[in-house]
Each structure stands twice: as C-alpha cells, then as structure tokens.
Specification:
Length: 209
C-alpha cells in the first residue's frame, strides 16, 4: 500500500497502453460500400450498435450482419475481421506506460478497465503482449456495461478487494470518465503522457522505483 493508502492502480487501455485510429478501418471499408468515410466512421465507432457490441449485448456475427446491411457492404465476415481489428499500434509512450505497470505489479494490485468489444480484445491478446502487467482485466463486453456506468467501477473495486474507493488510483485518457469515477470517490487522473502519469502516481503516494 502506498503512503496515502493506494492499494490498486487501474489503467484504461485505449490511448494509454495501446493507440488506435478508427479512420484506418473506415478508409479500408470505402472500397466495399457506397457510403462516405464519415458515414462509415459514425456507424462503426459512434453509434448505438457499437455500444451494444461493446456491452456484449450482441455477438460478433450479428454485429457484422447488421453493419453489412446498414452499409450495403459487399464483403463477407472473413474479409471484415482484419479491417475491423487492424486499427491498433504501439507508440513509445504506450511502451513506457506498460513498463510503469510492470514495475507496479507485485507492489500494488494492477488492473485494466476498458470499454472494448470481444473482437478487438481477442485480437489485442493475440498480437500485443500487454496483459501480463495486470492482475485483473475488466472489459465492458464481459461486464455487460460501459464506463462511465457507476457499477462498472464498483465491480472493479469488488474484484480487486479494495473496500474504499479512495484507495484506487485510476488513469484514463477521457476526462469525462475520470470525472465520473471521482464522484464515486476514486482518485482519478487524466492520462496525457507517461511523464505526467509518473508525476500523478508519485503525487498520490504510489512508489514506482
């Protein structure tokens, strides 16, 4: 436990430990539909359908069939999968955050808490060696809800065995998610870069070295 009572450190996944660009997939889909890149992007990544998929409410095959119908896709499921999944990449900052998480594991409980669908999650597990830095991995599709639903934070605290939310250090790149967690008593910090993360951790009494 840190000097200020921190027992566990929770990391977001996207744009913290792994970077992504949704427009990569939208541009690739252009060759298989009459829709514009903007229309594809909005349906893929900013729609109620994607929200249901991230909450595990619909299976991958149904998600694809509904996408195919809405976009008029001339593409089968096997052709869709790499386009949907190959949007992720690692930056030097991502590598550095991973190193920080590895140093914390064993001294603190470490966890990932991510809004993510099953296809992206399984793809990341196969391609990127990220998950060994964490004692627990919490995903929206497994929990049936997405951040900032208050219950998703509560489930994480319960699974980590942390009774007091103020004993959690949580970092996420989305300020609105940090703000919601803070209303529950969790000590949240907006992720900007690794240097800032280290300053925030040390300021919260978390020992890194």
């Amino acid at each position: 436990m840190g000097e200020n009572g921190i027992e566990a450190v929770i990391f977001d996944l996207g744009n913290v430990l792994i970077s992504f660009d949704h427009s990569i997939a939208a541009r690739k889909i252009l060759g298989f539909t009459e829709k514009t890149e903007r229309e594809i992007f909005d349906l893929f990544f900013d729609s109620g359908l994607t929200g249901l998929f991230e909450e595990g409410k619909i299976p991958p095959e149904e998600f694809f069939l509904r996408i195919k119908e809405m976009l008029g896709l001339k593409l089968d499921y096997a052709g869709f999968l790499p386009i949907w999944n190959e949007i992720f990449f690692l930056t030097s900052d991502n590598h550095d955050v991973y190193k920080v998480a590895k140093r914390l594991k064993g001294r603190y409980k470490t966890a990932l808490l991510s809004n993510i669908n099953v296809l992206h999650f399984n793809y990341l597990k196969q391609i990127f060696p990220l998950f060994d830095a964490f004692d627990c991995v919490f995903t929206s599709f497994e929990l049936g809800m997405r951040k900032p639903h208050p219950l998703i934070y509560g489930r994480a605290l319960e699974a980590l065995g942390v009774k007091a939310p103020e004993n959690i250090f949580y970092t996420d790149d989305r300020a609105e998610l940090i703000e919601k967690a803070a209303t529950l008593g969790i000590r949240g910090f907006v992720f900007k870069n690794t240097a800032q993360l280290i300053r925030d951790l040390e300021g919260a009494g978390v020992k890194i070295n």
